[in-house]
Amino acid sequence: METQLAAVLASLALGGALIVLLFGKWWQPLADGDKRVKELDDAVEALLQLRADLLKQLDGAPEPDQPRAWLRRAQDAQDEVGSIRARHDAGQLYVVRLLHYFLTTGPVAGLAEKQLKIVRAIQEQGAALLEAALATPQAPPPLLLQPEDLELPPGTGSARARLNDALRFLGDCDAALGVWGAGGVGKTTLLRQVRDVCGRVAPFFDHVFLVAASRDCTVADLQSEVVAVLGLREAPTEQAQAAGILSFLRDKSFLLLLDGVWERPDLERVGIPQPFGVVAGRVRKVVVASRSEAVCADMGCRNKIKMECMNEDDAWSLFEANVGEEAIRGNTQISMLARQVAEECKGLPLFLATIGRAMSNKRTPEEWGNALDKLKKSQLTSSTPGSDKSTQALVKFCLDNLESDTVRECLLTCALWPEDHNISRDELVQCWIGLGLLPNHDDVDEALRFGHTVVSVLESSRLLEQGDNHRYNMSPSDTHVRLHDVVRDAALQLAPGKWLVRAGVGLREPPRDEALWRDAQRVSLMHNVIEEAPAKAGGALSDAQPASLMLQCNHALPRKMFQAIQHFTTLTYLDLEDTGILDTFPMEICCLVNLEFLNLSKNRILALPMELGNLSQLKYLHLRDNYYIQITIPPGLISRLGKLQVLELFTASIVSVADDYIAPVIDELETTGARMPSLGIWLDNTRDVQRLARLAPGVRTRSIQLRKLDGARSLELLSAEHTAELGGVQECLKELVVYSADIEEIVADAHTPRLEVVKFGFLTRLRVMEWSHGAAFNLREVALGACHSLTHMTWVQHLPCLELLNLSGCNGMTRLIGGVADGGSPAGELLTFPRLRLLALLGLPKLEAIRSDGGECSFPELRRLQVRGCSRLRCIPMRPVASGQGKVRVEGDKHWWIGLQWASDDVKSCFVPVLL
To answer: Rounded to 5 degrees, what angle do the CA atoms 466, 472, 474 make?
Structure first.
């Protein structure tokens, strides 16, 4: 029996082999045909793109004979390819296709291969014609700006002349303009002025964008900047990102302002369309700012503006404007000393502003005399203006004039970020707290407020500049700050102790030089691409003992790096945000017994180990936006971390968490009586919220994410009826996120004095949403997604501090603001959103109006309006913006924009459309 079975199996195997062999032999011709036709399709697609580019370049001009003949050949080739494609697709069944292959006189594969050679020959000829057309000079569009009529701040006579030169460039034939000069002479200021002017005056550019090309920046760095400024999607690879940028900009006119260039970047690899100039009726121009004239020349800048130190009159005007006339003109002696102090600034705008601001509170001749003596003792008169020695002495003078050591140390810490980096205010203050630079406060909110006050002090001193918040495309931004590269260079030299800073320079491995690591107290390798680590433990890192280590935004940090840093036993500050930690927690961290600050946000951690309790000195543990929805927290861990003050445990997922998932944390806080000045946590039932409320004020819950809520029909947390059991959370709550619950109504009338951010998503049954006037006075950000039963959000008009409003996927919403019956303003009354900067209306198919009564709205601070998937919204009831506010960037579909109805041309002129 077994012998017969073996024989049958052998026969089946032999038969199968023969079938596979014959099938493969017969299938091969068809596979070849598919491959050749696919190659032919790709070639024709490229040919059609080439044809379109040539037609755009001709742009209605009479076609010369040679291009006309080529266009006919291209059309004939396209028709022939269509015939081959039809023959190839004649039959889809295998047998039919096989018969068709053998019976036709011209097999498809052979025909496709022959036609492919023809198409490629046509491509070569077309590329030559296009290149010749691009080389033909074209007249630029007329200049739409009149520089002499522009309003500039007082005391900028020489700046006006330079700005005029830059603006005239916009209407001439040159494709590139160079702006060069020493650090601190105003190159960045000039580029920002050009950008702002183009935002106020109707330009012929679809996009005007300022990008920082800092020292050692890579193609990927520039792509990230461009993507952020233009609001494009990020791509997984450099090549895909370049294709996305190129596709977006190819058919548009744009002005690229490239700041801080140290060497020529490969803009073609970035995805910036080439060449610059006037191409097919589109204007592409670039302004390059660099310290080197040679770099500008290498970028193709025939015309260049040399930024020099200010003359005596302009320098005095700028200095006086920052000091204040009342501090100078009331005393003849002070006025004389002030002019001498201004002279010591060597005509550098950066220091005329910063030192002028530093002297604004000096009211006696003695104070002015002391300041003059300090400047002269630094021997600036023998230094070349703009040299490292000169600028370092000036920065030191500004530092010495700050009000305290705390403020000085906080400023120096800003140099740990990459050059020209836009630093989030919140991120900066969190760092200061973690490093122990701010005074101790029992209330974390007090520490945060103090930190933001320090930021404001440094901005007032002009040592910190307003940054550009690329995320919301706002300019200027009150959410981000920036350290001037001249101040940063000096700060790194003046920093106390030894620092090792290689932030944002494209490192693929840590520095190997042992001398760099030896005795370094603060180490910043953030925003690199470190993917390799020391080959052995006895390398450069073996003797290092830094107090702080910043590795955030190295997206694929290797495991060996953790093995190297586990010996940094003196480490008190460690930032590992977005470093690609996958699944397993790096146990090496548990050896850092002196650690006080640990940031593990934006990673993929499955569980916290019990060994984390070895970090008995840990005060701040941040774990926000964790990829996984479940992160196991072993019982007893929190109680071992006896000094913990800030604990943030959030997931990036919106799916409901498992029951009692976070229970061990609350159990320990309850049983041990531990204090937790700031707790951020996600919960899945109101019972746990009540437990946290009973632990207040020892445990202050600042952030909560709620999911499921056990089928609750209302949100008790925001209701005054439940203040007795939930008041301990209501008083402290700053951020509230609610997802995937069966809530049908939200009546928010509880006292929530600190609440600033609310986000509601996938509340598909939510029908009623009411917010009392005083319940959310400080609310800054509101986001709603997939709340399909809501029809309006009238209550948002009563939020005086609202800065961001984002509504997406709310299929039932018909208007944003209802009438008087819904709690809205009376008809005809102007509705003002005094601080709203971003309004996003996305995927609201039934939205017909902003106000149901058709009344006007005023948005004095609006910077960006996003409208997509709102086909019924035909009118934006916005009043013309005030003079000097700048234009509002509106992003939407081209057909929607064309169909909008405007109350007047003045209202329409308030917007700069970005059609996607």
So the answer is: 40
The sheet with strand 480-483 has its strands ordered as 423-424, 480-483, 464-466
Q: What angle do CA 400, 404, 410 make, to 5 degrees?
A: 90
Name the residue type at position 72.
R
Query: What pTM was computed for the model?
Result: 0.78
- What burial letters (b/e) apply to 592-618, b meaning 16+ CB within 10 Å? beebbbbbbbbbebeebbeebbbbebb
Q: Are strands 282-290 and 277-279 parallel, antiparallel or unpaired?
A: antiparallel
Handedness of CA 677, 681, 686, 687 (dihedral sign): negative
In angstroms, the CA 550 to CA 527 distance is: 9
Q: Tell me the domain boundaries of the chain.
A: 23-135, 147-306, 310-401
**58 CB contacts (<8 Å, ≥6 apart)?**
67, 133
- CA angle 530/533/536 to nearest 5° reads 170
Amino acid at 579: T
Q: 310-401 architecture in CATH? A: Orthogonal Bundle (1.10)
Quote the CA–CA distance of 26 and 19 in Å, as a whole number: 10
The DSSP-derived string for 545-572 is --SEEE-TT-TT--HHHHHHHTT-TT--
Q: Which residues pair with 574 in a beta bridge?
A: 549, 598
Find where tokens 């003596």 sit. Answer: 373
CB atoms within 10 A of CB 466: 16
Q: Strand runs (DSSP E) across 722-771, as ranges?
A: 735-741, 745-748, 757-761, 768-771
3-state DSSP helix/strand/coil percent for the chain, to nearest 5? 40, 20, 40
Contact call for residues 866 and 892 (beta carbons, < 8 A): yes
Of residues 233, 265, 259, 262, the one with CA closest to residue 248: 233
Lookup: tokens for 56: 């755009």
Torsion of CA 852, 858, 861, 863, to 10 degrees: 60
Q: What is the mean pLDDT of each run of 10 residues along the chain (916 residues)?
A: 55 51 45 66 70 60 57 68 60 43 51 74 73 56 48 56 80 84 86 76 72 85 86 84 89 89 91 85 88 90 88 87 81 88 87 88 88 76 56 86 92 94 93 93 85 93 80 57 90 91 92 88 94 66 88 92 90 96 92 96 90 95 81 87 91 55 83 89 86 92 86 89 93 91 90 92 90 81 92 88 92 87 74 90 92 85 88 84 66 83 80 72
d(CA 816, CA 814): 7
CB 295 within 8 A of CB 185: no
573-575/520-524 β-pairing: unpaired
Q: Cis before residue 534, ω within 30 degrees of 0?
A: no
CA distance 750 to 65: 78
Amino acid at 636: G
- Count other C-beta atoms under 10 Å from residue 399's C-beta: 21
Cβ–Cβ < 8 Å for 124, 47: no
- Given a contact cutoff of 8 angstroms between Cβ atoms, the answer to whether 836 and 803 are in contact is yes
Q: Are residues 707 and 741 in contact, defined by beta-carbon separation less than 8 angstroms?
A: yes
Around Cβ 184, how many Cβ atoms within 10 Å?
Answer: 29
Rounded-to-integer distance, Cα 37 and Cα 85, Å: 7
Q: How far apart are CA 274 and CA 559, in angstroms?
A: 41
Q: What is the DSSP string of 69-94?
A: HHHHHHHHHHHHHHHHHHHHTS--SH
Report helix, strand or coil for 334: helix
**Tokens 């049954």 belong to residue:** 765
Instruction: Tell me the residue type at 121.
Output: A
Class of domain 147-306: alpha beta
